[in-house]
Amino acid sequence: MDCIFCKIAKGEIPSTTVYEDNDFRVIQDINPANLGHCLILPKTHAANIYELSEELTGKAFMLAKKIAAAVQKATDCDGVNILQNNGETAGQTVFHFHIHVIPRLKGDDVKLGFGSFKTDSESIAAMGERIKNNL
Ligand code: 5GP
Ligand code: ZN
Fold first, then answer.
1. Is 98 a catalytic residue?
2. Which of 28, 51, 61, 95 suits a disulfide with 46, CB 3.0-4.6 Å?
3. What Å distances lie between residue 7 and 10, 19, 44, 110, CA to CA?
4. 84: CA distance to ligand 1 center in Å?
5. Atom 1 (ligand 1): residue with closest C-alpha?
6. What is the pLDDT of residue 128?
7. According to the model, what pLDDT value does residue 117 have?
8. Mutate to test the pocket of ligand 1, among 17, 18, 28, 29 (most ligand atoms within 8 A of CB)
9. For the chain, what percent of residues have pLDDT higher than 70?
10. What is the pLDDT of residue 1?
11. For 70-123, what is each residue's pLDDT tens digit?
């Protein structure tokens, strides 16, 4: 399998690593939304959050907290977004699980609006039930 993030995570391709342990490598995004934009990569391949083990998913988000704090201090940013895309429709372009940690500055050019889906309270409640029944 030819996965660029596998190669980066395992150190086969050099990267701007800011953190590494047995399970993860954290690098700087090559095309950052803002300076300091980090990517948390597991060293084992999983295309998305569904494929990643619960244990590694938990560790990945704990690491996101640590990286977010370091990014905030390093950049003195006004806010931090933690994002994780699954599937092309959700904006995923590299199909190896990763978490984005993005520093945000007042007036920056990052666009992350959710839009607004037209619905009603009954549909919201019904969907809530469906989600509950799939846990
Ligand atoms: P996605 O859209 O899949 O959530 O995010 C993929 C991210 O990986 C993008 O922000 C993109 O700039 C970054 N990226 C893609 N290829 C490389 C690479 O070879 N090196 C680094 N450091 N980042 C990459
Ligand atoms: Zn991979």
1. yes
2. 51
3. 5, 16, 10, 28
4. 12
5. 92
6. 98
7. 95
8. 29
9. 100
10. 78
11. 999 999 999 999 999 999 999 999 999 999 999 999 999 999 988 999 999 999
Between the CA of 29 and the centroid of ligand 1 the distance, in Å, is: 6
Establish whether residue 93 lines the binding site of ligand 1, counting it when its CB lies within 6 angstroms of any ligand atom: yes
Q: What per-residue confidence (pLDDT) applies to 8?
A: 98
3-state secondary structure the chain: CCCHHHHHHCCCCCCCEEEECCCEEEEECCCCCCCCCEEEEECCCCCCCCCCCHHHHHHHHHHHHHHHHHHHHHHCCCEEEEECCCCHHHCCCCCCCCEEEEEECCCCCCCCCCCCCCCCHHHHHHHHHHHHHCC
Q: Do residues 39 and 100 lie in contact, with contact meaning Cβ atoms separated by under 8 Å?
A: yes
Where does the pLDDT of residue 42 fall: very low under 50, low under 70, confident under 90, or very high at 90 and above?
very high
Mutate which of 93, 98, 111 for ligand 1? The one with the most ligand atoms within 8 Å of its CB, which is 93
